[in-house]
Structure formats: C-alpha cells, structure tokens
Design a protein that fits this description.
761 residues; alpha+beta; elongated; four-stranded mixed β-sheet
Length: 761
C-alpha cells in the first residue's frame, strides 16, 4: 500500500513511476514517435491524449490582442479601446535586466536546452521528492505555447479551462508545438513573444503594459528591482500582486533577485542593494474605452465602435467583426473635427446641465460628404456610477445605441413635405387658405399601395387662433402653419412624402426602417433621430445630393495593413433647382420666421424650428453650405417642458426657437470659426399673392410677422381645403398639430395661453 506524505501529493513509489513516465515521455517526444501506453501515469488513457503523431504539424499562433486607437480628422487621439491592455514591443525595447530576471526565475537554462529540459525535469522531480512541494519543469517555450492557447481562447471560459487543465494530454500537445517553435522561431523570438503575451495581473498583458501599469514607464527603462518584481508576477499575478499583496510581492521579488545571483546575472551586492529598496510603485490607472474620449466625444466614439461591429465592410458576419474588434491593434481614422466637437459639447452643456431633467443633443454633418463632424450631449458619457452619466446616444437610432424609438421631429419635418411637393411639380407660390383649425378625412390620403390611409376624422389646429388666412409655401414654412402642410401633402401625395423622407435618410428611430405612410408624418409625428435630421438638411445644403452619414474614413491593423472602410455613398434625390428653393425658403425662417432670433450673423444660413406634443421635444435643425446641425432638447424619458428649470434658468414654455435655437447657434458659430462664409446658390423664389393676414382682418397686413410687402387679397378662408389623417399612435402624434394643443386631439384652451411668452414655432 503506497504511503502519502503529509500535505497530500504522490508517495515515493508514485513519484518514481512519474519520473519513469516523464523520462519515457521526454525520450518519445525527442524521438518524434508515437507514445506507448504507460499504465502507471495513464499516458494513453482514453480521453486524455491523442497519439503524438496525430497532432497537427503546425501551431496556429493568433495575433496578439492589442489596444485600438481611435483618431479624429486631424490625427489626434480620441481614445484607446481594448479587450486586453497590451502593447507589443520588440525585444530590443525591453530592458536586458528584465529579460535576465524572467529567464532566471522561469527557465534558467533557456538558451542551453531544447524544447524540453530533461535535466530540469529530473531536478524538479528530485526537489518534489525531497521537499514534498511541487516544482514545475516547463520550459519558457512550453509556457509560451500554453499562453498561445489561452490567448486564442479569449473570454471563452471553457476554452481557457481546456488550455490550462492539468492533464498529461495538454503537456504532450505543448511539447510537440514547443519543438516546432524552437526550430521555427529561435530563442530570441520565443523570448520576445513570451514577454509580449504573458499576463502580469491588473489587466496588464505583456511586459510593456505591465511596466506602464505598475511603474508608469516603458519596459526599456526598467531598473533591476522593478524587473525582478515583474518577473515574479508571472507565476501567480494574483498572489504576488504588489498593489493588493505588498508583503508577498516583496518576498517574491527578493526570490527573483537571489535567483539572478545564482545564475550570475547580477552580483550579491547588486541583489542586496535592490532588496533594500522599496517596491517603488508608480501606478497608472488603466484608462481605456469611450469613457476616456477627449472633447466629450464618448458618444461619437461609441458610434464608431458600433459602426465597426455592424458594417459588413469590416467582416462577413457579426462574429467575424466582433473577433476583429476584440483582437484590436487597429488605428481607426474618423471624421470627427476637434473644433466642431468642442463647440458642440460646449453648446450642449451651456444649453442644459447634466443634472437637468431635459438633455440637449447636438450632432453636425458636413454637406457633400456625409461626414459626422461632431456628436455631443449635455450629460456625460459613461456608466461608472455617476447618476447623471449615460451611454444612451440621443443623437442616433436604437440600433446604434440610441433611444429605443427615437423622437418625433415636429415641424422640422415640414421641409420634407415641401421637398416632395416641389418634386411633384407644386410651385412655392401655391397658396392654401384655412381657419386656425380644420377637420380632415384620412381617406383623402393614399398609402404607397394605393389604398386609403384610413377613414377616421382628424381635427387639427395651428399654433394659435390668430393663424388664419392664406399662405404660400414660404410663409407657411416661416410661420410653421400646420393646416397648410396637411393640405399640401394631400395635393402632392402621402406616399411621395414618406418616399422623399427615405431618400433624405429620415427613417424610424428604432431600427432605421422606412417611416410608415401615416398622414401625421407631415407634422413630424413619427420618431426619428437628430443625426438623420441633420443629414437630411445637409442634402438641401448640398443642392439635392444625399450622402449617407459616415464616421470612419480609414482603418489599419498593427502591421500597417489597410482595411476597406465604408465609402461615402452619394446620390441625387431631388433636383438642384428644387433644393435651391428649399434653401431660399428656409433662409426666410431664420430671417423673419420662427427662427429669426437665432440666425447666424455674417453668413447665409437656413433652418427650421420644431416643437412636439405637450412640448416634450423641442428642435432646431439648420445649416450653411458647409455645416448642418440638429439640436434636440428633451428628457431621456420625454416630459412636458413647461415650468421647469433648464441650465439654471426657469422656463415657462420650451420652444424650438427659444431653447434649441441658441444651442444650435453656439454650435454652428464654433464649428465655422475661421472658415470663410459660403453662399447658397441664388434662385428666384416664386411667391404667392395671398392675404398673409394672420389676424384675418383683410387689410393685407400680417400683424404677427412681416408680410414682405405682398399685396393682400381679403381672403375669406375658403381656399383649397384639404382632408387627411388621424395620427400614428395613442396619446400623441395624432391630430392637433405642433402647437400647445399637442399632436393629439387635446383639450387646450387658447384663452389660457400666455401671449407675452408666445413664440412662432
């Protein structure tokens, strides 16, 4: 009956059998022949090992995962992102004392033996027999092979367990591949690979990351006592962690130093001097990921990552793209302009504070390229415990990390209806007359399949009872006349309107699918995103040529190989002449319409305000020929924005012009600073000759807004009256328009309105 020593382990007879077995194993491996059965240690037991000759001939070494660097348009770093904190460095950039320390403690005869150190095996067995402890006998090459399999396993716990399981089969696999690598790579390359692949604890993979983590210096600058500490970590990064287990770390470091004396790498005096030193830690907290992005560009950084993971250009399927991203080592060049991002971030934070109930979202797109040049929010990006942080990107769709459904754009959608009408041949001079409210049958509108959109009756209103009269398209955009755009869509077509929206890139905020053909779409009743709205208006600025938004313009791997990137896809979606007309009409909005208080000085600019049901969302979307910007202000969970505090100011009633507009102006001025002013293409804008008499007294004067000197016609409000829709969902986004009554039937009493604070929107 065999005897076990105190503390467990194998008895003398079993150790002897193991010694014999290992000797046979070593001889077999070195001879390159199939292993015989060795009953004492079960070398060929079922399920433990394949025949040596049956193992694949070559070890597949996956590239080492490294950090990815995201750069802005000027080449500046936005953020480092990695699954594993590692920076691969060549051997000549690793301090010689670090190389010596590692070899001394892990494999002192590394440069003398082959893939297996038979003398080391014998020494380990003798030591184990004498002391009752367990001493390993794996060479650095064998350890490197194990680390290759661990690296390939990634975050798969089952594969990691398989790569580290204590079975003779794993040892045989390591031995065979160690032989291959000794012949293929040579000692120096194996040492370099080992130092770059191994884990040193505290999220540090490879010696360069470890040196930066513990000492805030490069591996080339390591001193003796520092190198000994890092070398000691390899055996057990947790047990010898110098941050959390200083006493154990000191013991292990001193052990390495004494071992270096034994291997004659250093003198006893040098070791004693190093032993007498403090650990000398200068810990750097690993900062990585989009939460570290400069210029508050965390949301843009997150968008770039999602673009990479979802775009087929970076891999055939999601698994391939994920693997490529986690491997890292990429340099990704983006469209972000630091000047524009800084301006957008400051504007968002000036417009709403992080602890406000409402959040400001700002996004900017370059007309003609689709480049996203800024993306900002008033709340900081992150999820590390700050209650005001968020990773919800309010500028983008749910599919790209945004709000679940997006947000209804309100009257900022009306230019889309106008664009569809122009393309259908309707003149900007087209006039409609109405009272401030009207009833419309859904059956007047046709879906894209030719069927009626419904049979319900819709009662809709303008912003106020003074909004009665006759308007052409320019005035209707300037004053945001709901009734006009419902009648306009009845003439030009519901299907044509949603089709134009799709061409302009305005889609559902949830999944980026096309909008539904609901008549309320003309009043901005369906959810979309600020990015889509900014890009749609950029199409107007680009004279009708739409470019899909892009954030990545270049990507290369750790070896400098360039990857394909999404190309800017541009196509004409409306005539240049009609886009020019839209530009001219929207220029009027910032000249003397609902956006006049925020128009830019010294630059031609155009835009549109928007306010949705119960003032839950307020918008301003506007542009110059060079930059298009969308601003949306509202709750992450939308709420009626009346009588609340925003950016330290009391707001009785939020409006697109009063709340979103100033944010837009600041972001635009900052983005355009130093850029010469550009001009829109000049166009003759046809105008109607209607009353334009908001007080409907027939005198031809607009008592609320400028009538631009057009003659009156004493309209009796019996113009081409339209009939239309019923809305797209319960509790809002239905009849009623964008005014205080909301986008639903509502029960608003105009007599309760505070006319001193009234703004045309």
């Amino acid at each position: 009956m065999s005897r076990k020593r105190v503390g467990g382990g194998l008895g003398a007879a079993q150790q002897g059998a193991k010694f014999v077995g290992v000797s046979v194993l070593a001889g077999a491996v070195l001879a390159g022949i199939a292993l015989p059965a060795v009953g004492a240690i079960g070398l060929a037991a079922k399920g433990t090992v394949e025949g040596f000759d049956e193992l694949p001939a070559d070890l597949t070494r996956p590239p080492l995962s490294q950090k990815t660097v995201v750069l802005d348009a000027d080449g500046g770093k936005i953020a480092d992102i990695y699954a594993r904190n590692r920076t691969v460095v060549p051997l000549d950039e690793i301090a010689p004392v670090m190389q010596e320390a590692l070899i001394a403690i892990e494999d002192a005869r590394f440069y003398e033996h082959g893939a297996i150190d038979v003398r080391g095996v014998a020494r380990a067995l003798n030591s184990n027999l004498d002391s009752g402890t367990t001493q390993g006998a794996s060479t650095l090459t064998q350890q490197y092979v194990k680390n290759v399999f661990v690296e390939a396993a990634g975050d798969d716990t089952d594969l990691v367990a398989e790569a580290t399981e204590k079975k003779i089969g794993r040892k045989i696999r390591e031995l065979k591949y160690a032989i291959q690598l000794e012949e293929e790579l040579g000692k120096d390359q194996i040492l370099e690979n080992y130092l770059n692949i191994t884990f040193f604890g505290q999220q540090a993979y490879g010696v360069e990351a470890a040196s930066q983590r513990y000492f805030s210096k490069s591996a080339s600058e390591l001193e003796l006592h520092e190198a000994a500490l890092l070398a000691g970590l390899v055996q057990s990064p947790t047990r010898y962690d110098p941050i959390n287990a200083e006493e154990e770390a000191v013991k292990r470091r001193n052990m390495v130093l004494q071992r270096m004396v034994e291997t004659k790498d250093i003198t006893q005096e040098e070791a004693d001097e190093a032993v007498g030193r403090e650990l000398g830690l200068n810990v750097s907290q690993p900062r990585q990921g989009c939460i570290t992005a400069v210029h508050d560009a965390g949301f843009f950084c997150d968008y770039v990552q999602r673009e990479f993971l979802q775009n087929p250009v970076f891999g055939e399927d999601s698994a391939e793209r994920k693997a490529r991203w986690e491997l890292g080592g990429l340099t990704i060049r983006t469209t972000l302009r630091p000047q524009a991002q800084k301006a957008a971030s400051e504007a968002a934070k000036n417009g709403a504070h992080a602890d406000d109930q409402a959040t400001a979202a700002v996004v900017q797109v370059e007309p003609g390229t689709g480049h996203i040049i800024s993306m900002a929010q008033s709340r900081p990006y992150g999820n590390d415990g700050d209650q005001f942080q968020t990773t919800l990107n309010l500028n983008t769709s749910g599919a790209m990390g945004g709000a679940t459904y997006g947000f209804p754009p309100g009257s900022t959608f009306k230019p889309v209806t106008a664009a569809a009408a122009l393309e259908a041949g309707v003149s900007p001079a087209k006039e409609y007359s109405s009272d401030y409210e009207m009833e419309i049958e859904e059956s007047a509108f046709r879906n894209c399949d030719g069927t009626a959109s419904g049979n319900a009756l819709w009662e809709l209103k303008n912003e106020s009872q003074t909004m009665t009269g006759t308007w052409d398209m320019t005035d209707a955009l300037g004053k945001s006349i709901n009734t006009y755009f419902v009648m306009l869509m009845e003439e030009s077509g519901l299907c044509e309107t949603v089709t134009m929206a799709d061409k302009l890139g305005i889609r559902k905020g949830a999944d980026e699918s096309p909008l539904n053909a609901y008549p309320s779409v003309t009043l901005g009743g369906q959810e979309t995103t600020p990015l889509m709205m900014a890009n749609a208006y950029a199409t107007f600025a680009n004279r009708g040529e739409h470019c899909e938004p892009v954030s990545i313009v270049g990507a290369s791997d750790a070896f400098g190989n360039e990857y394909a990137v999404p190309e800017t896809e541009c196509q004409r979606v409306m005539s240049a002449e009609n886009a020019d007309l839209i530009n001219a009409m929207l220029a009027g909005v910032v000249e003397d319409g609902t956006g006049q208080q925020v128009g830019l000085q010294g630059r031609q600019n155009a835009g549109k305000t928007g306010t949705t049901d119960e003032r839950r969302d307020v918008w301003f979307v506007g542009y110059t020929p060079d930059v298009s910007t969308a601003v949306r202000v509202g709750g992450i969970d939308p709420f009626p924005m009346e009588n609340f505090t925003l950016a330290g100011n009391w707001v009785e009633k939020a409006g697109g012009g009063s709340v979103a507009g100033p944010i837009w102006r600041q972001a635009m001025n900052g983005a355009l600073e130093g850029i010469p002013a550009s001009e829109f293409n000049k166009v003759d804008l046809p105008r109607g000759g209607g009353d334009d008499d908001d007080d409907n007294d027939g005198d031809g004067d607009n008592d609320s807004e400028s009538d631009r000197g057009r003659p009156g016609n004493n309209s009796d409000n019996r113009g081409d009256r339209g009939r239309g829709p019923g809305g797209d969902g319960p509790g809002g986004n239905g009849p009623g328009g964008n005014g205080p009554g909301g986008n639903g039937p509502g029960d608003w009493d105009w007599n309760d309105w505070d006319w001193d604070d009234f703004e045309w929107d």
